[in-house]
Amino acid sequence: MNVFTMLREQQRPVRAPRPLVILGLVALLGWLIWQPMVSAPYVNFDRSMVLVFVVVGLGLNLLTGLTGQISLGHGAFFALGAYLSATLVNEYAWNYLAVVPLAAVVAWALGYLVGRPVLRFSGLQLALVTLSLALITPSIIKAFDDITHGQEGIILDTAEPPGAVGLERDQWVYYLCLAAAIATYVVCQRLASGRVGRSLIAIRDNETVGATLGVRAAVIKTRVFALSTALAGVAGVLYTWVVQFVGPDAFGLTLAITFIILIVVGGLGAMPGVVFGALFVVYVPTYTASLDQSAAGLSFGVALLFFMFLLPTGVIGLVRVIARGLTRGRRKGAAGRTTGDTAQESAERADREAALPLDA
């Protein structure tokens, strides 16, 4: 099997020794906690945006990557969470942390109501129906300008750190986003690796066969859709803490495309891949825009074509192929050393036997 074939096929995760995994996670967590203390505010801003995209990407990966339901309308629920946060904090003096559970519940309820009729479609039809949500979201925001302030948007001054923690605002927001991203990852990974995940994969691969095995496809798809919209709503709240501004132009078609590119680049169906996808959608456009303003959109288009045709398993697929190759190399090396040691021991034993005196 050549490399290109391996890159196009789904690769199972490489199982590392448990102590090594725990050590790696502790080291990574320590690095994530320590870095904001020694980084500039703009660096913490970018990292916080990565974590925001991780939250929404994990939910969308459950829906699209595992269940196979393509949604281009999650930007609407992202906007719902953002405007709930901006309105309640600015107009009604809500505590910014109290908005998080409310946004999750409201987005979940709306997602459930929308998902019941919408998920009767599948494939291209579902993508087109949910695309309409992405197209009309900016218009709806502008239509309710008494609440949303229309095109002017809303400027926020929120998520100030408590005095007792001794942190700057950018550091405090980063840690809040990190906590939300870790909690979301744990929940989604548990769902994906358990019975629910197997049901989602059955729906994606063959819904008819899944139904014969007792998988209630309509119910499960609706609930997963609602869960993913709830996470999009929570991510919208986090977005307002980071950016401190909401406006209708931020929640249009470009955002919908960004969400899809996020999970495609990372790897459909792979939860760790969402992190790679979030890093891509935050840092690559920023870097390319510094070279040429028109290059930011071009980078998204080129990346989408590249990953769909040459690397459909995403960055996580490439990582798994490399890790599996290294693992096999170590095993072959160990086997070769063992074989060599055995041959040497046999030669030494033959020499000793040859040196013994013959019986008369």
Primary descriptors:
360 residues; mainly alpha; ABC transporter involved in vitamin B12 uptake, BtuC; 2 domains; two-stranded antiparallel sheet; 15 helices; disordered C terminus
Question: What is the general shape?
Answer: globular
Category by helix and strand content: mainly alpha
In the predicted model, the low-confidence regions spanning at least 5 consecutive residues are: 354-360
**Count of distinct structural domains:** 2
Kindly state the mean pLDDT as a whole number? 85
Question: Can you describe this structure?
Answer:
With 360 residues, the chain is an all-alpha fold. The protein has two domains: 37-311, ABC transporter involved in vitamin B12 uptake, BtuC (Orthogonal Bundle); 315-350. The chain contains 15 helices and two strands. The chain has helices at 3-8, 18-34, 41-66, 74-92, 99-118, 123-143, 145-148, 169-193, 195-205, 207-212, 217-243, 253-266, 271-291, 295-309, 314-355, and strands at 154-155, 245-246. The chain has a two-stranded antiparallel sheet. It is globular and about 55 Å long.
